Amino acid sequence: LFIHYYAESSCTAGRTAFITGMTPYRAGMLLPQLPGAVSYLRPGTPCLAKFLLDLGYNTGQFGKNHLGDHPDSLPTAHGFQEFWGYLYHLDAMQQVSFPDINKTPTEQGVVPPMKMVPIPGIPEPPGAIDPKDGLCMASPRPVLWMKSSDGTAKNQTGTDEGPLTLERSKTVDEEIAAKTIDWLDRVDPKKTNKPFFCYYNPARMHITTVLSKKYEDMLGVKGGKDWGINEVGMKQMDDCIGTVLKKLEDMGELDNTIVVFTTDNGAETITFPDGGVTPFKAGKLSTWEGGMRAPCVIRWPGTIKPGTVFTEIFASYDWLPTFVEIAGGPKGNELNDQLMAGKYPGIVKTKLNSINQLAYLTGKSKESARDTFFYYQGHVPSAVRYKNWKFYYAMAGETPASSFAPPSPFAWTQVQNIKRDPFEQNVGQDVKSFFNLGGALAAPSTAYVYDWNLLPIGQLLWEKELMSYKDFPPLQLAASYNLDQIMDQIKQQGQRNPGQ
After folding, report:
1. Do 357 and 418 share a domain, yes or no?
2. What is the domain extent for residue 341?
3. Which of 42, 56, 116, 393 has its CA 20 to 30 A from that of 137?
4. Euclidean distance between CA atoms 406 and 309, whole angstroms
5. Is the CB of residue 260 less than 8 Å from the CB of residue 319?
6. Cα separation, 73 vs 10, whole angstroms
């Protein structure tokens, strides 16, 4: 169990961090990807699946992806040999069930569907037009079944597995688990003489939760428990994960497989009760602890004892070099050295933000290799944690609506000992006393004066972080939900900014 595990503040960002080993800012993948988004997982981006495929692993991904819908962004273009799943957040897929919004995925009710770069084997929506010829919008791609023998875009082929409607949402997790189990059966090391990497992403828990009768009967008193849709949805997810683990057991591979269970972002409290809960401040889309801290557990029989608790900082992007070394690849941070030198075939010259944590996981080191974590609110440097201290520079508010406004910079940096005040009760716009900021139990004024003297540490850390983009810039401009992306494109084209 990890106590100080950091994901990211949204789904696309969190999945980007895990699979690429980079901050979403460096990968240019900051916000949840909508159909037709101009940013996507670019060719040549580091990807855990490619590294493991190169080391002789069979690779498969099942369930949600959310790293773009361009053919070059698909899992089967980045090292996965097989992918069955969907490309957006669940509610974006479910929009096909709301005819008052857009009728069907191929018959838009507001504007015509947009021509998109074709995916091999996937038909284009009838009546699609080029954006140059008129106003249109991208339809969500259907559920896809993609295959690529060598994990490259040039060899990928696909099958249209139909829309993900509200009705299908009731049992799509059973479908995802069944596809995962089928793949595990086909890549059983006893049959292939190869190890495997399975990236299994259930739909639960994400809005909108629609339950089958089996699970609907567990709501409230009908199931004998005081459960709402969130608890029942968690039960469904737990059951599906159990079937996948049972398959590993039946294969005789459960105790020979590292299993990590985690999530991509903090709890989505803004959609409660069809969402999550967290003891931490705020939630998804924020850089308060509630938006970034996430549950994570690992099972590694023979190496990590049951009941082990990891109490130091661990980031989701740290898995990439760690798994690569476990799989027999470059040791320590040698992989990052190769990438920075531009010497890894098929990968662009860039820099990982991950740190190899193998020594910490195996108990060879009692300390995490990571003592620093950077919080980005979109593209804005928001905060940084160094050991026990968190330095706050620009933060969104704590209410759900605050996520739609830009973060507010502090004229004076706030600093907090995050272990002393893990719920950040004494940080933010509404703090009444400077002395509260220290969060000490016995001597708040003394603690605050001491903590505030640490401010240069945060500034130096951010200076080093931001200067790294000079040599290894973001791989693309990130998409936005406002006009920032359009304005950036205009500036890049050398056209005059209308606001100037």
Report:
1. no
2. 2-362
3. 42
4. 36
5. yes
6. 18
432 shares its domain with 326: no
Residue 72 is which amino acid? D
Q: Which of 327, 362, 397 is the last residue of a domain?
A: 362
- Under DSSP, is residue 231 helix (H, G, I), strand (E, B) or coil? helix
Residue 382 carries which side chain, given as an amino acid letter?
Answer: S
How many domains does one find in the chain?
2
Please state whether the predicted TM-score (pTM) of the whole model is above 0.85: yes
- CB proximity list for 275: less than 8 A, separation 6 or greater: 205, 207, 230, 267, 268, 269
Domain boundary residue among 316, 343, 362?
A: 362
Residues 381 and 300 in one domain: no
Whichever domain contains 423, its CATH number is 3.30.1120
pLDDT tens for the chain, 500 residues: list them: 999 999 999 999 999 999 999 999 999 999 888 899 899 999 999 999 999 999 999 999 999 999 999 999 999 999 999 999 999 987 776 766 555 444 554 454 577 889 999 999 999 988 899 999 998 888 889 999 999 999 999 999 999 999 998 899 999 999 999 999 999 999 999 999 999 999 999 999 888 889 999 999 898 865 567 888 889 999 999 999 999 999 999 999 999 999 999 999 999 888 877 878 889 999 998 999 999 999 999 999 999 999 999 999 999 999 999 999 999 999 999 999 999 999 999 999 999 999 999 999 999 999 999 999 999 998 899 999 999 999 999 998 887 677 778 888 988 888 888 998 899 988 877 765 555 554 444 344 445 556 778 889 999 999 999 999 999 999 998 877 777 766 776 777 665 554 44
